[in-house]
UniProtKB/TrEMBL annotation:
SUPFAM superfamilies associated with the record: Nucleotide-diphospho-sugar transferases
Protein name: Glycosyltransferase 2-like domain-containing protein
InterPro entries named in the record: Nucleotide-diphossugar_trans
Organism, scientific name: marine sediment metagenome
Length: 206
C-alpha cells in the first residue's frame, strides 16, 4: 500500500516558514518514554512544523502512536505551527546489517533509505531537527544544537550522539564515523571519536 498522510494540518500560506521537527517512529515499547521526554523539551512550538513518520506496517502501532500524539497536542499545551502524521506502510525487514547474499531491497537499511527519500520530499523549511524514537533528549537539547548551527554560517548540520546503547552497567561505544576517505567506491580510511569524547567537536563531513 502506498504511504499517505493520516493527519495533515499544514497550510500553504506558511509551510516554508519556521523549522520542521521530524520524528521517525517504529518501536512500540519505547513510544511512551520517547513522547514523555519530548513533552519536557524546550521547543519553539509556535514556529515549528511537527512531522511524524510511522515507518511500520502495523495498524496497532499506528493506534498507539495516535494516542501519544493526542496527548502531546492537548488543548492546554502550546501548539505546533502544523502537525503531520505520515504512514509509510512499509513491510518490516529482518536484517539491519545485510550480507553478501542479501539483496539491498530486502534489508532494513533499504527501509531507512526509502524513509529518508520520502522525508526529503516533504520537508519544506530551510532547517529541520530530527529525533529518533529510541532517544530521550535533555530538555535543552534543541536550543543548544540550534544555537551551534546558527552561530557559524560554515556549519551545515549539527548532531548529538548517545555514546551508550545498553542498560546498566553503562558501556560506551564508538561515537559514530567522523572522517571517511574514499577512492571511487572503495573505503580507504574510517575514523571514529573515542567513547570518552566530550564537548563540541568540529568535523569535516563533506
Amino acid at each position: 500500500m502506498k504511504g499517505k498522510y493520516i493527519i495533515n494540518t499544514m497550510s500553504k500560506k506558511d509551510y516554508k516558514e519556521g523549522i520542521t521537527l521530524v520524528l521517525t517512529c517504529s518501536k512500540m515499547t519505547l513510544l511512551p518514554f520517547f513522547f514523555e521526554g519530548l513533552k519536557k523539551m524546550d521547543l519553539p512550538r509556535e514556529n515549528m512544523h511537527l512531522l511524524i513518520y510511522d515507518n511500520t506496517n502495523d495498524p496497532y502501532f499506528l493506534g498507539k502512536l495516535r494516542d501519544e500524539i493526542d496527548d502531546l497536542l492537548c488543548p492546554k499545551c502550546k501548539q505546533f505551527k502544523s502537525v503531520r502524521l505520515y504512514k509509510s506502510y512499509v513491510r518490516p525487514r529482518a536484517s539491519i546489517t545485510g550480507s553478501g547474499n542479501e539483496k539491498f531491497s530486502a534489508s532494513k537499511i533499504s527501509n531507512i533509505w526509502r524513509m529518508w527519500k520520502k522525508i526529503h520530499d516533504i520537508i519544506y523549511t530551510d532547517t529541520f531537527f530530527q529525533l529518533e524514537d529510541d532517544t530521550i533528549c535533555p530538555p535543552d537539547a534543541f536550543k543548544r544544537l540550534y544555537k551551534l548551527l546558527m552561530d557559524d554560517s560554515k556549519v551545515g548540520f549539527v548532531t548529538a550522539i548517545e555514546t551508550g546503547r545498553n542498560a546498566l552497567p553503562y558501556i560506551p561505544v564508538r561515537v559514530g564515523v567522523h572522517k571517511i576517505i574514499m577512492k571511487k567506491d572503495r573505503l580507504i580510511k574510517r575514523e571514529s571519536f573515542s567513547p570518552n569524547t566530550t564537548g563540541i567537536q568540529k568535523i569535516d563531513s563533506a
